[in-house]
Amino acid sequence: MPPKKIKGLLDYLSLAPGEDFELEEPSENYIGGMGLGATEEATRWAFKGYQLELRERIDHATAATFGIMSVSAGRPKKSDKLKANQMRAFHLWLMVQSYPKQMRREASNKGLITAMQKDENLSGVTRDLWNTASDKSIEVSVSKGKSWWGIDRDWNSSKCAEHWAKIWP
Length: 169
What we know:
The chain is mainly α and 169 residues long. The protein has a domain at 50-167. 56% of the residues lie in helices and 6% in strands. It has eight helices and four strands. Strands 1-2 form a two-stranded parallel ribbon. A two-stranded parallel sheet has the order 3-4. α1 links the parallel β1 (4-6) and β2 (21-23). α2 packs antiparallel against α3 (84-96), α3 (84-96) crosses α7 (135-149) and α5 packs across α7 (135-149).
């Protein structure tokens, strides 16, 4: 039986002892912390803001590191520049940072990649990074990037956190 989805404290208190649960994911109809008195319009706006903020962070990460991102062909050279696989893994790391711990643990590379590819708010280099290769090669790319960043099963990475602190104002 799938775990019960809970939205707040009252749902948590209604659980039977030992019953499995997971937090409701943000959606157009639900944003954690909005409360029962929020109008549908306010909840929808909060969700749009949530999505916009995530896209702004990803676009900023791309723009801030574009100067240090390598996409050249030919023989590989030793460099401090980030490669496409590292940028892809970093984008996914940024995306899951707002997820609850349980959702982060259950997030699969394939599911996150699909979410990124379906996102219509991506622009320029960021969009090209996610839509110019086959799904399988992007999965391999993300796996390589996760290894390089040292991203663990729960999507934690001190290396990513340091890089984000360096580029985010």
